Amino acid sequence: KPALSKIGEQMSHLTGVRAIMKDINETLRAGAGQKFINLSAGNPLILPEVEQLWRDCTASLLASSEYGEVVCRYGSSQGYAPLVEAIANDFNKRYGLNLTERNILLTPGSQSLYFYAANVFGGYTSSGDLKEIILPLSPDYTGYGGVTLCAEALIAYKPTLDIDFSAHKFKYRPDFSQLEITENTGCVIFSRPCNPTGNVLTDDEVKKIAALAAPFNAPVLIDSAYAPPFPALNFTEMTPVFGDNILHCMSLSKAGLPGERIGIAIGDEEWINVLECFQTNMCIHPSRYGQAIAARAINSGKLAEISEQVIRSFYQNKFTVLEENLFAAMPKDLPWFLHRGEGAIFAWLWLDELPITDWELYQELKQVGVIVVPGSSFFPGLREDWLHKHQCLRISLTGSDEEIAIAMQRLAHVAQQVYQRA
Ligand code: PLP
């Protein structure tokens, strides 16, 4: 065993979903003969129109004189200039902003952006103060659990629950009576729409969080991996919120380019500059090929168009299929609640008073050929014991309609047995 540093020790553990993926992959491999319905994926499906878009952009790049510039040269740490410019133009036009290229940073995927920010703004200052990374509404994206080199800096807050008992639906809201944003706050991060819950914080909630952080000059990172204008995986009206202390963060992973690793940060010039320096030290710059085709897709308007017309409706329909099948199959007298499906590519199910843990339920579902993700992986930074943490499941909308229907029937059957046994 190699002797590891403290950071080495910490970073060699997989967190959240990545840890469970190992179990899932082993299950799939071991049960090669058995047919599993795998609703655990965070990976979007390959939609033909989306693939065609990227194929066309690639063909255009290959046919242009730009090709050599893109693949045969190092580039700037900020990202490939034509993509920076495409984003500035698009956002200025679309949202009436005054962005210059100094307001934009491109990173190898948005995960790396959160890593930079968590360690630039969170952790110990040179005078020894601990700057906290605040997750204002737990559950949230499992990847935030692995981004800080200073584990004690990550602090998540329990939400309040809006429950519609007769409809078997609920929605999380930030609990402003508990949320503490103070001079110890280094930065704030949340996803909107949210992975895993599909929640979309309202404009007012977002503005309130930003206003709480403003007096301390703490950046609020709004993880817009599922937001409009691309991939536009919002099923409810939402407008991106911009502001002096907001870092608007995006990803092209859910718009068909997960493997090309493209993350985008938009915000205050000085913050962008600090993040860019971190990036230079870490990896010099993100890969340029994906950025060059992304610039074409944004400039032509096609990326936003396909996002709205293809990607959004595809997953919105999947959510409806899941919801209808779940409601048809689940016993009405049990205390289960589906989170309102406001966006992203997941459904989030809460089984109140569940007599076993979410991990045990996950194991029982595997026995009937259904793989989902136990919800407890999605509470990074939450220190308190909270039964709710062990009562939820994340179900991906990445199956076929038929698979989703069968999976909901099996899930309902297992849930009924589990409650009855108690
Ligand atoms: N943020 C959220 C909410 C996500 O769901 C994901 C990926 O699933 C990421 C960030 C990371 O995406 P990437 O690093 O591919 O941009």
Main pleated-sheet profile: 8 strands, mixed
Q: Give the strand tally.
A: 16
Number of helices: 12
Mean pLDDT: 96
Could you say what the CATH architecture of the largest domain is?
3-Layer(aba) Sandwich
> What is the CATH level 1 assignment of the largest domain?
Alpha Beta
Query: CA-to-CA gap between the ends?
Result: 44 Å
CATH topology-level fold name of the largest domain: Aspartate Aminotransferase, domain 2
Write the element-wise H/E pattern from the N-terminal end onward: HHEHHHEHEEEEEEHEEEHHHEEHEEEH
- Low-confidence parts, pLDDT < 50 over ≥5 residues? none
User: Structural class of the helices, strands and pairings?
Assistant: alpha/beta
CATH superfamily of the largest domain: Type I PLP-dependent aspartate aminotransferase-like (Major domain)
Name every ligand kind in the structure: pyridoxal-5'-phosphate
Strand fraction band?
15-25%
Q: Structurally, how many domains make up the residues?
A: 2
The coarse overall form would be: globular
Radius of gyration: 22 Å
